[in-house]
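Recall that a protein's primary structure is simply its ordered list of amino acids. Everything else, from secondary elements to tertiary packing, is in principle encoded there. The following example makes that idea concrete.
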Amino acid sequence: MYHPGKVVAVLTPKDSISSDKSVQATLRMWDENVLTMAVDAKIASKIREGDIVLCDYRPEKGLSVPVPRNVVVKILRGKQAERMWHEYREMHEKRKRHESRESQQSYIG
């Protein structure tokens, strides 16, 4: 399973005191969560603020409890990125409206 997010900040070893050369990205996910995830080394030099990315949420192998990988594995740009972000956000907004309507209904008994 993969989830889209929008890059809020890119954290590189150049911009911080770091124990290694890895890159992380702080993301606003499609469902409004804010997470910081590792960026796969193959795309770390290409990621930038404002990018729409896909994050690998598949479970790590070899663990008894499923824990998502939480790694940025793909950068989407242009119309593809806009369409992906729009579809997920629209679904999230519909879900929020539905939950809001349900919470406003009162039980009369």
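The radius of gyration is 17 Å. The chain is about 25% helix and 30% strand.
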